[in-house]
Amino acid sequence: MNALRIIGAFLRLNVQVALAYRSEAVVQILLNLMWLAWELTSLAIIFANTNELGGWGPAELIALLGVWRLVNTMMSIIVWPNTEKFNQGLRDGSLDYTFLQPANSQFLVSITRVELWRLWDFVIAVVLIVVGLGMSGRVATPVNIATFLALTVSGAAVLYSLWIVMIAVTFWFTRFDNNVTILAALMDAGRFPAQVYPFWLRLLITFIIPVAVATTVPLQGLRGELAWWEIAGFLALGVAAVLLSSRLWKAGVRRYSGASS
Amino acid sequence: MARPASPAFGANGTPPIVVEELSKTYKVTDREGGFGAAVRSFFKRKFKDVRAVQRVSFQIGQGEIVGFLGPNGAGKTTTLKMLSGLLYPTSGSAQVLGYTPWERQAGYLRSMTLVMGQRNRLAWDVPAADSFLLNKAIYRISDDEYKRSFQELDDLLELGPIIRKPVRNLSLGERMKCELAASLLHRPSVLFLDEPTIGLDVGAQSRIRAFLKEYNRRNGATIILTSHYMADVVALCERVIIIHHGELRYDGGLSELSRRIAPYKIISVHLGGCDDCALESYGVVLPGEDETGKKRLQVPADQVPAITARLLAEQPVQDLTIEDPPIEDVIERAFNEPLRN
């Protein structure tokens, strides 16, 4: 209950920041539309030469682009801005105050900054998913849709946990400007279905930096391609990731407290 | 361990802050300068222990304002960080309001505050008023409490219109007022202030001092303050704790410190028609004159009456004043001379 109140207070704060930087919001939205045009153009180029990619047709890839953008939107609303804030806090010491507030510090570093105007990207993502599915002629059953939503949430939780792990690891090392570079780099791999990549890269993006878990997997759920035990497995992975990352975070905070001066 | 029923007031008479043998040792990499040393250190790292705080013990009573003094690197900030719960000590113990600080229990965090003059806790791009509301949510301050608290801080600090300007547009003094207000909205009963007046102009410094004094008077808050401005210490602290190289050097009254460490007074005399009278026989002649052309003599405190009488009898004295040695000198001496109480 109090968590909601804190989220509300942070949101109000961030709405004001967003309003203070209106022109930046407009520029970002325009840039985002240009990226969308580029992504769709590159899909058009690919499918001018072939009918399918790793067993996926053009309509399905548009839907996948939508799911990928859904996850990316979460990253750009919360993860990237808070990474910047976190690294800045480590540098100038303002992170000290975060640890002295009577609220969960992982929660606080996750929601300090929210890029609200990015919410608009959600709309684009949902449109892409709906259009892609419509073009493919598939009809998603309510069960498929529920599976998709659950797997998207759990996939997002896995990526979020991975982020927590990466910034928590910063507590053990003094260099911190590149703590999330690998996560950012591999996010791009999620634009295409995991099946198109060579085996080693597929392993990497499914298990090590599990971008595919948040993109390909939910879409497979939407298309009804996953067995129940696979669904259960991926959901369990989400829960496990959240629990493990919060333990590592706590250890990191203890380490920070031991080392800073 | 049993906690006092009402920790804020230290039931059964326990002082709010009890520190015993507190120590903190940092491990830092140790290498010489230069390229070769850098390469060697890459393969074989040498570590060195830095003893930032060594077996420091003290107690601070309800409502006391204590000045925590020492040169840069003496261990002041490290001690404050341990007491606020940010750092784990290497050894020793501390109880603040009945809590062990570094366990960081919510109850503890809600009843104390740490203010660091060089750090910024307010959101940069929005007015301070919005950061206040955030703290209201985090510290679970009820609407009524918030209103009362804010009103009081507004009265004392004259926040007025400054809380509606984006923080980045505030002057340093205005920002510090807002930082203090944000740190005190939850009415902490223990305050750790690490150089709260640093960088402020003289007027702003004295306003912050007046505020702290009044906050302490109204709320009975216990305050530990570090500052390099002796005016802060003289205005606020009857008691000072001096640490140097991580060790406690002195713990006691500020005036007592003067008497013990610098048992002398300064006699300033203005002599008519005698530019080079031999004043050496009266005491140590301090170099330079003050702006009015007075000569300054340092004399043992217990001989002041006798020496003054001699001066008046033997020299063409036009004006004479007797003063305590400047507090900066006393503190400076206390840092450098071995001293235990």
CATH hierarchy: architecture of the largest domain in chain B: 3-Layer(aba) Sandwich
Rounded to an integer, what's the Rg of chain B over CA atoms? 24 Å
Name the structural class of chain B.
alpha/beta
Largest sheet of chain B: 6 strands, mixed
CATH level 1 class label of the largest domain in chain B: Alpha Beta
Average pLDDT figure of chain A? 87
Radius of gyration of chain A: 19 Å
Classification by helices and strands of chain A: mainly alpha
The gross shape of chain B turns out to be: globular
Stretches of chain B where pLDDT falls below 50 for ≥5 residues? 1-11
Hey, roughly how much beta strand do the residues of chain B contain?
Answer: 25-35%
CATH homologous superfamily heading of the largest domain in chain B: P-loop containing nucleotide triphosphate hydrolases
Major sheet of chain A, described briefly? none
Strand content of chain A: under 5%
| Amount of helix of chain B | 25-40%
The overall pLDDT average of chain B reads 86
Number of helices of chain B: 11
Helix proportion of residues of chain A, in percent?
over 70%
Helix-strand sequence of chain B: EHEEHEHEHHHEHEHEEHEEEHEH
The number of E-state strands of chain A comes to 0
How would you describe this structure to a colleague?
- The complex is a heterodimer of chains A (261) and B (341).
- Chain A is mainly α.
- Chain A has one domain.
- Chain A has helices spanning 2-20, 22-49, 58-92, 95-99, 105-111, 119-136, 142-169, 181-187, 199-208, 211-214, 216-222, 228-259.
- In chain A, helix 7 packs antiparallel against helix 11.
- The model of chain A has no long low-confidence stretch (mean pLDDT 87).
- Chain B is 34% helix and 27% strand.
- In chain B, the strands form three sheets. Chain B has a six-stranded mixed beta sheet with strand order 5-6-7-3-8-9, with helices on both faces. In chain B, strands 11-12-10-13 form a four-stranded antiparallel beta sheet, covered by helices on one side. In chain B, strands 2-1-4 form a three-stranded antiparallel beta sheet, covered by helices on one side.
- By secondary structure, chain B is α/β, with parallel strands linked by helices.
- The chains are: A mainly alpha (261), B alpha/beta (341).
- The A-B interface holds A 2, 5-6, 8-10, 12-13, 16-17, 20-21, 92-94, 96-97, 99-103, 108, 254, 257-261 and B 26, 52, 77-78, 81, 84-88, 102, 104, 106-107, 109-110, 114, 116, 118-121, 123, 125-126, 130-131, 133-134, 136-140, 166.
